[in-house]
From TrEMBL:
Residues 5-118 form the Response regulatory domain. It comes from Streptomyces sulfonofaciens. Its main location: cytoplasm. It comes from the Bacteria. This is Transcriptional regulatory protein KdpE.
Amino acid sequence: MTMTRVLVVDDEPQIVRALELNLKARAYEVDSAGDGATALRIAADRHPDVIVLDLGLPDMDGVDVIRDLRGWTRVPVLVLSARHSSDEKVQALDAGADDYVTKPFGMDELLARLRAAVRRAEPPGGEGDSVVEAHGFTVDLNAKKVHREGRDVRLTPTEWHLLEVLVRNAGRLVGQKQLLQEVWGPSYQTETNYLRVYMAQLRRKLEENPSHPRHFITEPGMGYRFER
């Protein structure tokens, strides 16, 4: 069973320490950051399962951190802030936060809300949902395998990673920036030629008619969508 990884973002060392102690005592893995830029870098490198975020950071507003995160990830964000006004709560939630806890806070309540945020982010169902059937091929997300016409399809690690992101977002448009960030990392957000090359390779290997794809759809200038 994999441990849940939490990223704690707060510039108050005593709050970071308290959260680290309580989370680690409950078998969470914990990373921490004292400013927004560090938080964004760690989020890209470590892929946390949930982020606990203070809004009053020394280098940038926490709302801007949320907006940046939402450009490429749906990781649950639990805001922990001394800001009590409803306008500020609405602003954070509209930016993409999943929940909002005001300081001072009760540790039990915070942990309960954190568990709820993680649960909501989990895909519904169990093992069966890891196998995605499309017309002509099958993707097994747990086994990291693709079958077409009864045979394994050999994919490179990059092809697989790109396929996995699209399949996990089946039916939804995935933006170019998000795909580049998730597959190649934060330094490649403008390299859209990478997407064109690798999407062509996936279509060649999996589409019945690669020049008229039915599964890997391009939304010009925006991104790509996987349809079963």
